[in-house]
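Exercise 7b. Backbone tokens:
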């Protein structure tokens, strides 16, 4: 499975974002991801586990070495998102609704 296919799946990046600070169980992930169904959560957890990005642990699920390396990219993406939001605010632009 190509990385963009995996990360483009709904909730995949959010789950990885939530795991960046340490292991979480399924209930904690569901609580942090409003609107995420348990069936989609478990599907994404299986996909992310089989891809070697997360692993089951005694505390739930956690990032593997590869997943931790990926979390560095999240930091850069978060920095960009802050700049983008500030630019939208400065120019009185907002997300367009369709």
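Sequence design result:
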């Amino acid at each position: 499975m190509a990385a963009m296919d995996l990360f483009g799946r709904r909730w995949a990046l959010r789950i990885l974002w939530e795991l960046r600070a340490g292991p979480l169980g399924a209930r904690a992930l569901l609580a942090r991801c409003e609107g995420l169904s348990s069936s989609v959560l478990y599907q994404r957890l299986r996909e992310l586990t089989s891809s070697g990005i997360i692993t089951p642990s005694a505390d739930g699920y956690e990032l593997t070495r590869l997943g931790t390396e990926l979390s560095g990219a999240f930091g850069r993406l978060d920095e960009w998102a802050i700049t983008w939001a500030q630019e939208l605010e400065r120019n009185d632009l907002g997300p367009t609704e369709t």
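Instructor comment: The domain at 3-90 is CATH 1.10.10.10 (Arc Repressor Mutant, subunit A). The chain has one domain: 3-90.
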